[in-house]
Amino acid sequence: MDFSGKRALVTGAGKGIGRTTAQALARQKAQVIALSRTESDLLSLKDEIGCEIIVADVADATLARDAVRRALPVDFLVNNAGIAPLASFVDTTVEDFDRTIAVNTRAPMVIAQEVVRDLLTRGAKGAIVNVSSIAAAVGTPLHTAYCASKGGLDAMTRVMACELGANGIRVNSVNPTVTLTPMGEKAWGDPAKGEPMMQRIPLRRFALPEEVASVIVFLLGDEASMIHGACLDIDGGFRAV
Question: What is the span of the domain harbouring residue 91?
């Protein structure tokens, strides 16, 4: 794939899947705009791939809108920023729930709205990938807020696809299993938790960030021109069992 002349905004680009996706897009010659709340992560990424950087906490809807407006025009959007506070259902706080929805569900809406409005104004086609999770469809202990936020993100992906397809704007989500990122390690690094989960995956391992990023890049490209409104599992067969 050759994304020369294309601008790609990646949120949560400082670490994990977002950073790996930014690197992959840069290898395909896209001009990457990397957004994260941690400036040091972005500066090291800029040194590595020569991307534009924007520091913002997308939990704040106003800051999220301002950030994406600074990034425009954008051809590709990867809504990757996410958090996963861990607590049992009865111990999940309103504050953690609200912040998780704000980052994982509301921010993708706010950011995509700005990108789509600009695409429509320019009469341009585009592609959006929302980074979701198999937790959108599978109940996961200690992940009440996270599961709710990703279920909402998948539902929003389908609505976006229904409304935007006629304008040549494709929208999909990717739904990985546990991925070996700092957030994944925090949730599943304890072998007592991680091993039973891994045994439920037919491939008997967790995903690598590169394996998710490669699917995201594929979905953005013309090779995926007929894939639209999909919530694509990247789970080693977890949901096939």
Answer: 7-181+208-234
Is pTM beyond 0.70? Reply is yes
Please indicate whether residue 146 is annotated as part of the active site.
yes
Query: 3-state secondary structure string, 11-59?
Result: ECCCCHHHHHHHHHHHHCCCEEEEEECCHHHHHHHHHHHCCEEEECCCC
Q: Which of 46, 146, 186, 193 is catalytic?
A: 146
Q: Which of 6, 125, 150, 193 is catalytic?
A: 150
* Residue 187 in domain: no
What tokens were used for 195? 């091993």
**Residue 19 located in a structural domain:** yes
Q: Is 193 a catalytic residue?
A: no
Asked if the structure places residue 214 within a domain, the reply is: yes
Q: How far apart, in whole angstroms, are the C-alpha atoms of residue 51 and residue 235?
A: 30
Structure confidence by residue, pLDDT tens digits, 143-176: 999 999 999 999 999 999 999 999 999 999 999 9
**CATH code assigned at 118:** 3.40.50.720
